[in-house]
């Protein structure tokens, strides 16, 4: 079936972007940038008599040609998207030239756009510009991916361009600045401002240019002879190193693994408010969301941000050093950065943590694949923002892991080195990656790249086995719909266990229906398909209860234990299975213990008393907060049973996650003494506690908590507003007298109409829907919200909720 979306080739290069110099200052009140851009370019091949630049929503003051120290005014046409400059003559590819543009950028006035991954495309953002929000600092920052940097400076905004750059920023002297490259000068001005000059001498794609302005504390670090620094809000200065301090070790690890030393002048990371993406790998200056990286020591008991820090750092090889030539080839950036999370976990935390990373990624892709199946490399798509999905990230990372397992570690990293050195400081497409692997391994790998990168879908396998006459007959069926997906070639390891002895068999699946005969002296204790846990597939593998129990007790890795626990959950009442889960509660790896606690929810088997004691012990004494929290949730699943003493003790836990789980447990079983202690937490800054309190007050709150919901709404992340806070607020409002609901309804209506993220608008609308039957006028308000929603996808979601 031919694609219904348009073909999206790499941008045709008429002109090479060579260098950009910006001299900029800011009007906070108007949320505007006043700039002078000096752009150095040359014709790519064909002679040119005009220059076409991307420039979105500017006021253009003038355009001049710089030649021999003089400026010459040029004519231009401008439609608020493209600036077309008429040159003074024809220029050949051997004749570079410079254009200077005086302009005002007004990103705040641009129409809203974006996607689920990058929720806005205005390029330049002023946070709390008038200083009226006491809960946020004043900041300016940018987000260029995909093609949003042309909202604040004129450029050729395509990933197959590269430029050096120099940015001169004039700001109020109280603020710090950050940009790409090195700070080469800083001068205090008589008017109370300061002018900083940042210069990047190595070329990078325009979307990787960034600036940040704010009241930052700068924590200095070092890797080899290069500056490493962390920009955070001053109150988080003391914990910045605890969050970011493994960065130099990551730089050393990745440099060594790839055989290519970190190639850029320096490496900074900055945490900003209201960031429109998870994080962004701007060359030498990564931007992070403050809620992910500005953590207290207590926050760090529950989580770190190593995965994201490793992800964005690895982009400085895959994405910045070598850049996808088109958004169709985005997995050449994102799949590698996703896989860096696995590599770092494997190096720093061990094989089990890496397997957990593998499991998360596979789950994210398979969840998305329920509604969307596309090739990794997509030359057909509706919007370039569609490329930022779990295919480009999670599926791509798992595909790279399979490639590594197939060619072996030495060849895998040698091929990556070859790819990077052959394509450094240039753009690339997937064929170049394949060729690099083929040149290193000497093997034609078209089959691998074709089925995994160029075709949609994934294997769906049904696995059975039987034993007769000294051999195991392993039956493998590929049951995916081959109208859209190929019959896969799958090199895989199968392990046959006889008692405590295991034998690995390497097989290659290449047909829709195949049977493999594997020697075995006696009936096997277990036949484990994909025993390395490396395959990206949906696998239905038939095993008996005894085989699954054997798998758990003889597991080689976390994935095998987790799989046994999940497969046996329906039989949790069986004594052997509950015994396995009790054993798992004492496993060395925390995620196994957590899985066991989750599996024991609502347990009704013969070991009820012992299991409840085990869960209470785990809830109070396990070394990992994630496990303690899961144990509390398991205890709360037993109806009409009183564990209030455990919950009350857990309110004193060092972990916010554990306290949050205790509060949620107490929401269903409130006590007077616990309520008083919970109320003392109302002013917390921790989002885990905020959402837990909202859940508690939804079921147990009064008019006092109605005011609390209104007051704390601005402190809750957009994700938490959508996932639970709005719904909990509406649940409480149903118990409020109608006359008291007006402020809450007005607040929800405001979010539903003007929320900056589509899912925030959706969450607020759903909350209004919960209250619709309480007010005749509310239904007409909701109809008006639907009618005026400009995002057609969101409007469709609104209509589905009627």
From TrEMBL:
The EC number(s) given in the record are 3.4.11.2
Alphabetized SUPFAM superfamilies for the sequence = ARM repeat (SSF48371), Leukotriene A4 hydrolase N-terminal domain (SSF63737), Metalloproteases ('zincins'), catalytic domain (SSF55486)
User: InterPro entries per the record?
Assistant: Aminopeptidase_N-like_N (IPR045357), Aminopeptidase_N-like_N_sf (IPR042097), ARM-like (IPR011989), ARM-type_fold (IPR016024), Peptidase_M1 (IPR001930), Peptidase_M1_aminopeptidases (IPR050344), Peptidase_M1_dom (IPR014782), Peptidase_M4/M1_CTD_sf (IPR027268)
Q: Which domain of life is it from?
A: Bacteria
- Which reactions appear under catalytic activity for this entry? Release of an N-terminal amino acid, Xaa-|-Yaa- from a peptide, amide or arylamide. Xaa is preferably Ala, but may be most amino acids including Pro (slow action). When a terminal hydrophobic residue is followed by a prolyl residue, the two may be released as an intact Xaa-Pro dipeptide
Q: Which cofactor does it need?
A: Zn(2+)
Keywords, ordered alphabetically: Aminopeptidase, Hydrolase, Metal-binding, Metalloprotease, Protease, Zinc
Q: Which family does it belong to?
A: Belongs to the peptidase M1 family.
Domain annotation Aminopeptidase N-like N-terminal: ranges: 21-208
Q: Under what name is this protein listed?
A: Aminopeptidase N
Every copy of the Peptidase M1 membrane alanine aminopeptidase domain together lies at 246-452
Q: GO molecular-function annotation terms? A: aminopeptidase activity
Mind giving the lineage of the organism this protein is from?
Answer: Bacteria, Pseudomonadati, Bacteroidota, Cytophagia, Cytophagales
Tell me which CDD domains the record gives. M1_APN_like (cd09603)
């Amino acid at each position: 079936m031919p694609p219904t979306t348009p073909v999206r080739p790499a941008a045709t290069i008429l002109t090479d972007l060579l260098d950009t110099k910006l001299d900029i200052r800011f009007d906070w009140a108007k949320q505007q940038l006043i700039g002078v851009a000096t752009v150095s370019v040359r014709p790519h091949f064909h002679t040119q008599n005009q220059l076409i630049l991307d420039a979105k929503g500017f006021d253009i003051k003038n355009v001049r040609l710089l030649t021999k120290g003089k400026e010459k005014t040029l004519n231009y046409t401008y439609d608020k998207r493209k600036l077309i400059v008429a040159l003074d003559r024809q220029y050949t590819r051997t004749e570079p030239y410079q254009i200077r543009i005086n302009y005002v950028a007004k990103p705040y006035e641009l129409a809203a756009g974006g996607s689920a991954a990058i929720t806005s495309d205005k390029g330049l953002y002023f946070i709390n510009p008038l200083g009226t929000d006491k809960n946020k600092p004043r900041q300016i920052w940018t987000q260029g991916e995909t093609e949003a940097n042309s909202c604040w400076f004129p450029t050729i905004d395509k990933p197959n361009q590269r430029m050096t750059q120099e940015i001169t920023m004039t700001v109020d002297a109280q603020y710090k600045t950050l940009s790409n490259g090195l700070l080469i000068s800083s001068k205090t001005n008589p008017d109370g401002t300061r002018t900083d000059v940042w210069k990047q001498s190595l070329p990078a794609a325009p979307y990787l240019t960034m600036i940040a302005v704010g009241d930052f504390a700068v924590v200095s670090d070092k890797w080899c002879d290069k500056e490493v620094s962390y920009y955070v809000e001053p109150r988080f200065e003391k914990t910045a190193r605890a969050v970011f301090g493994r960065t130099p070790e990551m730089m050393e690890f990745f440099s060594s693994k790839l055989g290519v030393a970190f190639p850029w002048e320096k490496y900074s990371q900055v945490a900003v408010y209201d960031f429109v993406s998870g994080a962004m790998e701007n060359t030498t200056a990564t931007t992070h969301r403050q809620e992910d990286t500005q953590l207290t020591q207590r926050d760090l008991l529950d989580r770190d941000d190593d995965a994201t820090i490793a992800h964005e750092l690895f982009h400085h090889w895959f994405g910045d050093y070598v850049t996808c030539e088109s958004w169709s080839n985005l997995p050449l950036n994102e799949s590698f950065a996703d896989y860096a999370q696995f590599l770092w976990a494997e190096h720093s935390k061990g094989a089990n943590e890496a397997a957990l990373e593998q499991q998360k990624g596979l789950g994210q892709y398979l969840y998305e694949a329920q509604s969307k199946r596309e090739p990794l490399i997509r030359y057909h798509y509706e919007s370039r923002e569609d490329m930022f999905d779990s295919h480009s990230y999670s599926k791509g990372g798992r595909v790279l892991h399979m490639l590594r397992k197939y060619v072996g570690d030495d060849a895998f990293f040698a091929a990556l080195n070859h790819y990077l050195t052959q394509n450094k400081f240039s753009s690339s497409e997937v064929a170049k990656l394949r060729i690099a692997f083929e040149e290193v391994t000497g093997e034609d790998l078209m089959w691998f790249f074709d089925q995994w990168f160029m075709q949609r879908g994934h294997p769906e396998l049904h696995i059975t086995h039987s034993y007769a006459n000294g051999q195991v007959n392993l039956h493998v069926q590929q049951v995916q719909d081959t109208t859209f997906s190929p019959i896969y070639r799958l090199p895989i390891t199968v392990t046959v266990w006889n008692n405590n002895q295991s034998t690995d068999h390497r097989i290659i699946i290449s047909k829709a229906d195949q049977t493999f005969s594997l020697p075995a002296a006696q009936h096997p204790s277990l036949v484990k398909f994909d025993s390395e846990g490396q395959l990206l597939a949906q696998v239905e593998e038939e095993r008996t209860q005894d085989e699954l129990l054997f798998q758990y007790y003889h597991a080689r890795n976390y994935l095998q234990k987790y799989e046994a626990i999940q497969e046996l959950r329906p039989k949790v009442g069986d004594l052997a299975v509950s015994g396995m889960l009790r054993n798992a509660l004492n496993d060395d790896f925390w995620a196994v213990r957590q899985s066991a606690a989750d599996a024991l929810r609502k347990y009704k088997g013969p070991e009820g008393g012992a299991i409840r004691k085990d869960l209470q012990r785990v809830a109070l004494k396990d070394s990992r907060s994630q496990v303690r929290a899961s144990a509390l949730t398991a205890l709360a699943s037993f109806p009409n049973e009183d564990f209030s003493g455990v919950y009350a003790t857990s309110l004193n836990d060092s972990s916010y996650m554990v306290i949050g789980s205790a509060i949620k447990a107490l929401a269903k079983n409130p006590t007077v003494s616990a309520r008083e202690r919970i109320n003392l937490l109302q002013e917390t800054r921790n989002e885990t506690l905020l959402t837990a309190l909202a859940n508690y007050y939804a079921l147990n709150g009064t008019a006092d908590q109605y005011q609390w919901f209104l007051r704390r709404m601005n402190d809750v992340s957009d994700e938490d507003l959508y996932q639970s806070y709005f719904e909990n607020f509406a649940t409480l409002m149903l118990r409020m007298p109608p006359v008291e609901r007006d402020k809450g309804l007005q607040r929800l209506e405001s979010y539903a109409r003007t929320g900056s993220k589509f899912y925030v608008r959706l969450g607020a609308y759903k909350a209004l829907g919960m209250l619709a039957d309480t007010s005749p006028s509310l239904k007409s308000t909701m109809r008006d919200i639907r009618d005026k929603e400009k995002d057609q996808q969101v409007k469709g979601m609104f209509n589905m909720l009627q």
